[in-house]
Amino acid sequence: MKTLYLIRHAKAEDHGLLKNDYNRNIISKGKERAIRIANELATQLKIDSNTLVISSSANRAKQTADIFCEILGYPLADIQETKEIYEAHFIDILRIINGMPNKVDKLLVFGHNPGLSNLTNYLSHAEVDLATSNVAILTLPDNFNFSELAGGTATLLNTIQ
Known about the structure:
Blueprint: E1 3-8, H1 28-42, E2 51-56, H2 59-72, E3 80-82, H3 90-98, E4 106-111, H4 115-124, E5 135-139, E6 155-160
Helix pairs in contact: 1-2, 3-4
């Protein structure tokens, strides 16, 4: 069974005139929460050769992915970064997920709201609003590949808050 982990970036610096949104970094409170949630996820997720991590290339998302991957034991050099997740509509994020190879069984996607919450709700018909560092864990039906993932086809197994 395939599992999708949608993870919102950790709490970041406030918006300001001195730094554009894309370059905002996570703050210490965000890092602490990300570490706590990543440790909880580590009790439920075992990384293997069929695991893939994709992250928005925005600073705060990549920094969150790095924290989670260090704790989970996923090689930081193997994180696939894409700007396409930054400020993306949930359908655009789904398009990226639909392009995953069939060998991928566990997919972790680090990104932003509202895209990730909307995607969770679209895929599972749940009502979730992911706060910073929250993880939505969705399972696909037996014998489903990520290429077949569409509205209402996933089950929301859990959220880690």
